[in-house]
Amino acid sequence: MFLSITPSKLHHHPHVSVERALPGHHQESPRRLVSGAVPGPSNVPKRTTAVEDTVWRELSRDKWTESHVSSWLKDIGIKEKYIIKMQEEEVTGPVLTKGENIQMKCNANPAPTEASSCDYRPFDQNEKNCKYVKHNLLPPETGVENMIVPCHEYKSLEIAHKLDSERLKSKVASEVLRFACACMNMRTNGTIHFGVMDKRRGTHKHGEIIGIPVRSQDDFVDALDYIERCFKGSNQQIDGRKCIRNPRFIEVFDKETTEKTWVIEYDVVPKASIVKNKLYSVGIPNFSEKDKKVKLEDKVPYQRVGANSPRILDDDLIQFIQQLREKDQQREEAESSSNEMTVDCREDQNRRLAILLTCGNKHMDNSLFYIIVTNKCQPEHLSSLTFLLNMNPFCVFDFDPDSKTSGLCSKYKEQKAVNLHFLDDYANNDGLKSADFVDSLQLFEKTSWIFCNGRTNFPSGETTCDEKTWIKTRKKKLKKAVSVICNDILPGRSFVVLFLLMSDVEQPLVETFHEFYAEMNGHDFLAVISESKENFKKWSSLAQVSCPMSSLKEISIVEMPLSHVDATVQSIQLTKNQPTRTLPVSNGGLCFLKSVEEAKIDSLEIISVDQCDDTKLEIMSDEEIKQTESYFYRGGKIDWINFWLADKHKCGDIIKRDAYNDASTILDNITHRTKAIRPIESVNIYHQPASGGSTVARQILWSWRKKVRCAVVKQFKDITTVCEHALRLREHEERDQNNCLSVILLLEDCNADFIDGLRRDLGNVIATKKISPSVLCFILLICNRSNDPERMCRASPSQTVAVIHELTNTEKPLFSKKLEQLKLQFQPEFILTFVLMNEENEEDQRKYIENFVKNLLHKIDHSSPITRLIRFVALMNCYVDDSYISVSHCEASLGIATHMDKTKHHAFVDHLSDEARLIFIHLKDRSTHISSIRIINPKVAKEILCQLSANLPQSDIAMDLINDKVLINHRFGKDDFLKFIKALFIRRNKKSRGDLVDTAFSPLIEHVRTKKDGIQKAADLMKAVYLALEKDPFVAQQLARLLYTDRKFEEALEWAEEAKSLLPFDIFVLDTLGQVYKRWFYHLYDSLHENEPSPQRDIEIIGTALKGISTFRASENTPKKETFSLNSSYYGEVDVACRLLKFLSETEVFSNNTGKSELIQYLTTEYIPAEIKQPWQRFHHQLKGLQKSLNHALECISEDLCYFQTDVSEEDEEFDPRDPEQVYNPRKWLRKKSTVYADFFMIPDEIDQAAESHSTDVAVPAEKLSPFQKQMRIYRHGGGNFTSILALLFDKDKPRAGRKLETIIGMYPENLTRNSLDPIELANFIICQIALNCTLPGSSKLLSIETLQNLSKRFTTKGRNMPKASALFLLSLLFWPETSTTLGSANSDILLSAIDDLQRLYEQKSQHLTLRKSRIVTHFFLTKAKGLNKIVHKSAIEKQVQCRPSERKLKWLEGEIWRNKEVMKLLERVEGWTENGKLFVNAGTKDSKIRVHPRHSASLPNGNERVTFYLGFSFDGVVACDIKEME
């Protein structure tokens, strides 16, 4: 940090002027010139002689040498270390005169702020709480004004306070008695102050409070004993005692020292009854140093002349005496007037209170947050604080430890819910991001009640402490809490801090004021209420340390009764206190929902019957109603107040689109059934952006709120919490859980995982509570944005409606009529979104928008900061759904310092251009009320970006945005802003989310790639984003993908390695590294034709492929997987290996007639052709392991697919680098790759014959083939792994699937024994038998269950040779008893062991996966039949339920499958019991039991109960479905 000292700079310094600083003038404090430079040991100042020390006074400045400058600086009090620095800079007089910069390095300590003015202590009052602040300025000394207003005189005692007691008393007495005599003769009140500068001296100003140390207060008291010695005559001495008050000692607060200093003040009150007709004379005492004693001057009269107290000259004495009568009369009149007149000169406190709390608005609404700071409330105050309830404070800093039991908190909690916190809770020691920190404390949900000095009747936490201990231990915590709130949570100027001085003020309360004052940069948005004048006096004396007394008075309401405050504030609150709201009840009546109860179900926004009825319509102006309406028609989200005002006929009706009628019809059909089909129903609304889908959904809730209970599910709430709250809402004040009104839950833009999870959990709770499945409990109203809503509607037409921009024939006249009405109130450009809805078709809309934007931008200044902001917002709104920029970010970017005066908050919008005001719409978060902006319509945003990018390409706009450090680093709302930035550059379009097409990269990057030098620009953008997002590993990953797509493999490799260094265990990042080598290998292979074949080329290609395989394999073996996914790296290994096999077969050495056989021999035996022995030396080992590793990878993929369903979460979808088929249809991909693998390793003749054969019979007898060739043939026919075999069960043509299975089984030896096959082959054979029984139950190839059980006993080994999950799964299938009595002890042991091992394997596999139980695949279910028929495949159950695939999934999730009559006939209900929250069945012997996992844990009944359920078999063990308690 550097400070410059020049005459010009000094002139503009807030404390210093050149005229004062340079010779001949008073000087200012050197601390305000320079500070902090520390001289080194060699920095010894040049010696100056005594002559040099003074000669500068006689010289003009331009003749000063360096020594003269040093002497001058020394004279004005500059510290020596700064003088040294000036000498090092060789500063001379001419340098100062010319005004050159003198750079002086200093520490980062800011210069002291300018001294504040302050007020006097109240005259002639014993004000024990009064304090002064050092360096503050009292008003100038004064003379006589009106005799009642005291005149003032200052004495610094700067040096004299060091005198001994005798000398000090005489000095003080001389000043006090002269001043008092003058006041008594002038008949005026007066105060003389010691410790205040009486003139400019050195760095001090006139009237500056400096304070003096006081060794003994007695010296100042005893000084008045000179009255008897100095006043003339005993009568005057008596009068002197009556008029001169004892000294008052006012402490001086000094931040820079702990030494106590004081200002000592003597009041003089010459009452008319005492001084009338008298002239007073006094002999001033002086201490004679010669005689070492006090001597008195002659007794003479004194008077006040201006600010001085001179003696009355003899020549003027007679005239003065003649004027005394007039002075006496004036004094009497002044005293009479002062006593009789009770003029209340206070301003209208009601108006000031309103201004302080509304910041100049007409009334209080939800546009401001309120923070309350209070100390202990007295019991009589609590009834007068109702206004706080309507404020809904963001937080309360409470210094009353008893507040929870008997204070304000206790009173508040009677009607409102709060979260109780300590200061420690705001420390954020875990380093959470702002959004996560807010969620952790539930801020914005309930008032945060912060106990700042302990809490009584609480077993842990902070205890109450005294002031000094609090300062030492908790002041820092308070500072942190205030800083977090002001800088990270609430935007500036969005909240008012209200201090309630309810009892005696202590220092911690004042410290809170200091902290808010500092963080909020002044007293704006601060308010103080104190009914007690005494409390305020103490408060203000302490608070003036940071805030001038005059400002404190401006923001304070003092001596106004709290009951008046309460009434006044309630009169300006837009909503009245409503401790309860009403809900409909099943009997047709209404019930009350208390605010406290409602707060306990805060994951839901409940729409009550009397929604908005607490609004005071009488104080809403017509202009406000008009603004509310126009906000909606401009494109803002509709609010409940819009519907309420329309119902009250205060604004126009809101059009009901056809989609509303369609959705209402679906709801009517659902709710009016005698018996519900299912307890949880769904109605889907898919809508194009800005087409009104959200309005339709809210219209439904508004119109249904009196028939059923309605709520909106708040964003980002936990599924379990939402489920619990939804059930509580349904059952509130209802007596019979089977006869409650249903609940409509609106879910907006929720992903499928959340919706499925909520539906599942609600279903489990319904089952657990034994609510009848024929009772309709919940209706999920799912409102999602989609760019192709009609396609989504076709997928499930019976429960889905689509909302599009284009109007139907019935809607057109309604919209046309409404538009004409609106045009009477608003200009078309101010209701643009509604105007667009009236355009006939998409083409008309496009032309209208194009012309609108063209006219808008015609004269726009492309270089202005506002236009730059428009570009940024248009870019984000065009590419990122629901994106916005907070007003706080905008202000920071534009450099706008919004401010507030006494009546109006100058808003951000005042600084916008006309164009920006037209296209920006202000948003306000429903919970946080935080302001942000976006462009009124996505299509307008797209057109603006299109036209503006003609001057500046989108890549340049994006680069400008990402390089704007002010925006990127702005603290407030940073998490949301960076989330949008990340989405802008990373989020891809997906059809599964309703987008029209899938994209490989974000749409912005896709756009940039299509332009000239696009790939390089896109890469440069991603690099800038990587740095801006503080080295985000997923940006590095996407950049690697972008680069390898452009065949920049070396650079792609660097970025993939960079991502890996940041996230070493993330499977997507690791897989991307493998993908670089994979694409590199593919490129080298595909471009072979471009170059002459060469051994070196072959080596490069093989080396690259093997690096890819090694990289994928390293990813497979990573010790930890930090996200849910099947390990995608196996897919990459298989892809590369299959392509590598193809390449090897085309190399020169293996491309001849016998090359295929020779290659297989090379890969599977020790054989190495001579031609490649040396050139491929470093590859032999890896290539010879290729077949086994490929087989292993295919097996691992199969096993994963046996465990888990293949649906991919949206988050995983974003970063998954695999090919689409691998992601969305991995079973089909596996089947293809298995065939490629088998075809390669089959001998050529076999491939040809198998291809030529039109039957499923084997071309060559199996007995003539080697075991390996048999294995390859099995693979080729789909029998190589569990997944491929089970996939045959989904074939709709069961006989065809059966014939395939017979073919596969025919390739195995006829007379199998346990040891004929290896464990994997044996497992595949047995599952083929089970599958064959499911497709062709009468097949001759089938073996009995006893035979299969005997074969499977090979899988019962333990230890290192423990079988794979597939083998254990087969044991659970084969050995599960047909009845509880058919299982022998030996078989019981096998079953128990197998299930235990299965569960153990699953736990190991899922240890680091964040997955849900619903992702586990249940393959088979237990039936009522015998033998192999006791198990049935999932496909056979689905066959019984005829419906669309999307509806079938819903039936599985909601358990409707289990109520199907055919399914109930087919499946066996197993008896079991619950014990300590676990489910068991009997294992066949008396003391054995088998643990069964409920597929949905919430469906388990509480306590220990006997239950029945359907039994399923999966790779994580046996599972229970449709659990019911036994009667």
Task: Summarize the structure in short.
The chain has 1527 residues and is an alpha/beta fold. The chain is built from 66 helices and 34 strands.
Can you tell me about this structure?
The protein is an alpha/beta fold and 1527 residues long. It is 45% helix and 12% strand. The chain has 66 helices and 34 strands. The strands form eight sheets. The chain has a seven-stranded parallel beta sheet, sandwiched between helices. A six-stranded mixed beta sheet has the order 19-21-22-23-20-24, with helices on both faces. Helix 29 (719-731) links the parallel strand 21 and strand 22. Residues 1-52, 99-113, 341-347, 898-906, 1121-1125 and 1247-1259 have low confidence and may be disordered.
Helix content: 40-55%
Tell me about the biggest sheet? 7 strands, parallel
Distance between the ends: 82 Å
Structural Rg:
44 Å
Question: Overall pLDDT, averaged?
Answer: 84
Low-confidence runs of at least 5 consecutive residues:
1-52, 99-113, 341-347, 898-906, 1121-1125, 1247-1259
β-strand percent reads 5-15%
For the biggest β-sheet, the strand order reads 12-13-11-10-14-15-16
Number of strands: 34
Helix/strand/pairing class, anyone?
alpha/beta
Number of helices: 66
**Inertia-based shape:** elongated
Descriptors:
about 1550 residues, alpha/beta, 66 helices, elongated
Set out the fold topology.
Elements: E1 2-4, H1 7-12, H2 18-21, H3 50-55, H4 66-75, H5 80-88, H6 93-98, E2 103-105, E3 131-133, E4 151-155, H7 165-186, E5 190-194, H8 217-222, H9 226-230, H10 234-243, E6 248-253, E7 261-268, H11 272-275, E8 281-288, E9 293-301, H12 314-340, H13 349-358, E10 369-374, H14 387-391, E11 395-398, H15 403-406, H16 408-413, E12 418-422, H17 434-441, E13 447-451, H18 467-473, H19 475-489, E14 495-500, H20 507-519, E15 526-530, H21 533-543, H22 549-554, E16 556-558, H23 562-571, E17 580-584, E18 590-594, H24 595-599, E19 604-607, H25 622-634, H26 640-647, H27 658-671, E20 680-687, H28 693-704, E21 709-713, H29 719-731, E22 743-748, H30 752-768, E23 778-785, H31 789-795, E24 800-803, H32 811-823, H33 832-837, H34 842-856, H35 865-879, E25 885-886, H36 887-894, H37 914-919, E26 920-924, E27 931-935, H38 938-948, H39 954-962, H40 965-969, H41 974-986, H42 1003-1009, H43 1014-1028, H44 1033-1045, H45 1049-1062, H46 1067-1086, H47 1095-1116, H48 1129-1146, H49 1155-1164, H50 1170-1173, H51 1180-1184, H52 1186-1203, H53 1210-1215, ...
Parallel strand pairs: 3-6, 4-5, 10-11, 10-14, 11-13, 12-13, 14-15, 15-16, 20-23, 20-24, 21-22, 22-23, 32-34
Antiparallel strand pairs: 1-2, 5-7, 6-7, 8-9, 17-18, 19-21, 25-27, 26-27, 28-29, 28-33, 30-31, 30-33, 31-32, 33-34
Helix pairs in contact: 4-5, 19-20, 27-28, 29-30, 34-38, 35-38, 35-39, 39-43, 42-43, 43-44, 44-45, 44-46, 45-46, 46-47, 46-48, 47-48, 48-52, 48-55, 52-55, 55-57, 59-60, 61-62, 62-63
